[in-house]
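Residues determine shape. We examine one folded chain.
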Amino acid sequence: MTAGLKFVHEHGGIITLGITPSHPETGYGYIQFNPDESIDEPDGPEKIYKVKTFAEKPNLEVAKSFLASGDFLWNSGMFIFRADTMMDEMKVSLADVYESLMKLVPVLRSKDFDKTLEMVYSQIKSISIDYGVMEKSSSVYTIKSDFGWNDVGSWDEIYNISEKDSEGNVKKGRTVTINSKNNLIINDQKIAALIGVEDLLVIDTDNGIAVKSLEQSVPVFEKIFGVTASPMEHVADQKVNVRKLHLTNCDLELLEGTAPDSPISKFIEKKGEGIHHCSFGVNDIIDKLYHLDNAGINLIDKTPKTGADDMLIAFLHPKSTAGILMELSQKKN
């Protein structure tokens, strides 16, 4: 941090702190630096490297290649820069945002500042600094950093950093585990009981969960929640078998693919068993889809189709919902 502050004070430019990767992580963005273009800090061991490019979250094979190359760092999203440097960058890369911000200069320290700020901010387009400035600038540098950073952007990371019992379980809330290992349980309301299971994620919420075998999985969840699952239903359009557990405030839906090209079968092949989607009940699904489409939300289904329990369903694309597959559902009547 000290080296970065000293560099931008003396030379300008933008420093982004890159984390030395410890494993091929697919949940983080990456920074590629140029090992042949570095600046040695005379007062410390740190080297400051010129950034070549930024990479989005990769798949596992690409992440492994990043790690093997030795010139990629995890993108921590932490930056060091002078205010005048960032304003100069925005003047070039985000001219409309720059012009809006400059409207604040005449009213600084005046009684009109708060009102002007609210007006200006409401008109500025939403864009991250990564896309708006960092990926366009030719004056971005990085410092290799290693200070126990974790993005905590996935359930895997929450499990990794949480305190575990002697069997590797992370238990938050009213939880009982018997002959169960390496599970993550977050439960604030009801008692969650896990019996003879491993590598489960149990969160007290309304989720659809993808499983390889309903025959093996349903008894486990029945023991956990103390309820009997509904009879199996086959949804031909989705190529899935479905059984539901009707809980106090939500339904838990267990989904089993019936063909290799089923969305559930593909999901399990790629990611393994786990939470597949979150479902939200609506009163008028057609109206809701119309308004979401007009609001720029990417829809998988622009018109509803029939799902389990003869419900009308439609999915929103994860690209528009922070990587979470979301379903809207409505009773036909």
